[in-house]
Amino acid sequence: MTEPQHSAADRLAALGITLPTPTPPLANYVPTVLSGSLLFVSGQLCFDLEGKIQPAHKGKLGRDVSNENGMAAAKFCAINVLAQAQAALGRLDRIIRCVRLGGFINATPDFDVLAPVMNGASDFMVAVLGDKGRHARSTIGVAQLPADCAVEVEAVFEVAI
Fold first, then answer.
1. How many folded domains does the chain comprise?
2. Is the pLDDT of residue 4 over 80?
3. Is 52 part of any domain?
4. I need a labelling partner for 66 at 20 to 30 A (CA). Which of 22, 89, 90, 94 fits?
């Protein structure tokens, strides 16, 4: 017997998450670009479901932000990535696959556990999209991010046209 297929909306509901209204760009760029069957989502910051950045998600990993709060910040970034994708596509079920996530971690120069922080975004993507959420990934430590956020995440999705 095969397992029933669950939609991204069903999985979000099971997780108790309603996608927020996407945050408008902070500068001269667009939040998404659809090119052929690829949807590129610009880097999303760790705004919570009310559109605020929690104090625990501001500053540098390795100094101001705990690893656990960094993972939570990465999850909020992934929520915002999906909110932008839904706004661009109309519904998340048009996503065939999450091709790639790129993570930027605001970190001290000696902070060396970037990958587990980014797992907050990766784990959430798989929780919502199932196997379609498994992706290639880059995680990079950076000196600073907009609004002093701890994490920023960008994505590429293959989508049904």
1. 1
2. no
3. yes
4. 22
Phi, psi of 78 (to 5 degrees): -65, -40
Q: What is the DSSP string of 31-89?
A: SEEEETTEEEEEEEE---TTS---GGGBS-BTTTB-HHHHHHHHHHHHHHHHHHHHHHH
Tens of pLDDT, residue by residue over 71-125, are: 999 999 999 999 999 999 999 999 999 999 999 999 999 999 999 999 999 999 9
Q: pLDDT tens digit string along 36-67?
A: 999 999 999 999 999 999 999 999 999 999 99
- Is residue 155 within 8 Å of 85, Cβ to Cβ? yes
**Taking the chain, what is the end-to-end CA distance rounded to the nearest angstrom?**
31
116-119 contacts, C-beta under 8 A, 24 or more apart: 116/67, 116/71, 117/61, 117/67, 117/70, 117/71, 117/73, 117/74, 117/151, 118/74, 118/151, 118/153, 119/71, 119/74
Question: What CATH number is attached to the domain comprising 55?
Answer: 3.30.1330.40
Residue-range definition of the domain harbouring residue 12: 8-16+33-159
